[in-house]
Design goal:
single chain; mainly alpha; Arc Repressor Mutant, subunit A; 35% helix
């Protein structure tokens, strides 16, 4: 008995990925949004769910092993899940759209650059999702959750059908023909079916118009293709045609040539970036703007996500602001060194400053560029 118990001991922690996330695409019924699911989505969700479940476990909280909260940064999570930061940000946005996760933005001086994450079990929100699987060679879906879970419905009984009768004066009336007799012992005895066996249940809402018909998500048809969100555009701009969705995005806009898609993405990226607020009302650069910067314009960061050279970030913010104001490229390029010298930590979001530096200690010191 002892040997049998020992053989079942888990020697290495493992993460569980719900089988239904093997779906190729998942549609959100309430919004009509359809999301293509990749291995990045599966691995990142499995990691977040595993950590959240452990950190919010009442036993761990009681034992003093956890505070009951789950904090982590995009930088750390991207590394832990072996994906780029831009990919992680795109995936977590998809997972939020599915209703699987949510988060609260970092609070300065408390959690630094880390968000607090909240993760839901798939079974808590699956009623709002439609899973679409790839087909096998025999035409069957690659996974049948209803059959595997034992929820396979029985053969649907014949429901009374409406009969339309027309009178001599042309008026129409609708009557319902009785359903044929059945040998179903439950139906004869008056015992109702369990609520979960929807295949046999006939509710009082069954109308001529089909009150019990399953409503599949309706995706609104767009007259013209939409511009992608800024995170996706930045991701494609940095990773190129090998990144998921790059070629598909070009195709949706009528482009198949890689160079033309690159130009299209650049155009859309700068259009969306122009909508981002650069400085807040206190003259501090917004974290949204810094995070949106791409390529050579993006400031280098430390492993914890803080900026290595905040002077460069300040110069980029001033340059983009000057560009919006109509300043010439020559004037902007000439001003960049001046802006770098004028940079102060007070112009940078607190959570992006290196932890070893304090906002109030720089007034009489050389700025580390």
């Amino acid at each position: 008995m002892t040997e049998a118990v020992k053989s079942n001991v888990i020697k290495e922690p493992s993460r569980i990925i719900p089988k239904r996330l093997d779906a190729r695409t998942i549609a959100v019924k309430s919004t009509g949004e359809v999301i293509r699911v990749t291995n990045d989505h599966r691995i990142i969700y499995a990691h977040l769910e595993d950590q959240f479940r452990g950190l919010t476990n009442p036993k761990n909280i009681a034992a003093g092993k956890s505070t009951g909260h789950y904090y982590d940064s995009d930088e750390n999570l991207a590394i832990k899940c072996d994906v780029s930061k831009s990919t992680f940000k795109k995936v977590k946005k998809d997972l939020k759209a599915l209703g699987l996760i949510d988060w609260e933005a970092p609070k300065a001086k408390k959690s630094g650059h880390a968000c607090e994450y909240f993760v839901k079990q798939l079974t808590d929100i699956d009623h709002n999702l439609e899973f679409i699987y790839q087909e096998l060679s025999n035409g069957q879906p690659s996974y049948d959750h209803v059959r595997v879970s034992g929820l396979k419905t029985k053969k649907t009984k014949k429901i009374a059908q409406p009969i339309i009768e027309e009178s001599e004066n042309g008026a129409q009336s609708v009557t319902v023909a009785p359903a044929p007799a059945t040998n179903d012992p439950e139906q004869q005895s008056g015992v109702s079916q369990p609520a979960g066996d929807s295949g046999d249940a006939i509710s009082c809402d069954d109308t001529v118009n089909g009150g019990n018909v399953i409503q599949f998500p309706k995706v609104k048809k767009q007259e013209s293709p939409q511009i992608a969100d800024l995170d996706s555009l930045k991701c494609w701009r940095e990773n190129g045609p090998g990144d998921f969705g790059f070629m598909e995005y070009g195709a949706s806009h009528g482009e198949a040539d890689v160079d033309r898609i690159v130009a299209l993405i650049d155009q859309h990226y700068f259009e969306e970036l122009s909508k981002v607020t650069i400085f807040d009302e206190n003259g501090v650069i917004t974290g949204e703007f810094i995070d949106a910067l791409s390529g050579d314009d993006a400031p280098k960061r430390n492993d914890d996500g803080t900026l290595k050279k905040y002077g460069f970030a300040y110069a980029m913010a001033r340059a983009y602001k000057a560009h919006r104001e109509g300043k010439s490229e020559e004037e902007i390029q000439h001003s960049i060194p001046v802006w770098i010298e004028a940079a102060l930590p007070e112009y940078i979001p607190v959570h992006l400053l290196p932890k070893s530096e304090s906002v109030h200690d720089f007034s009489n010191e050389t700025i580390p560029f």
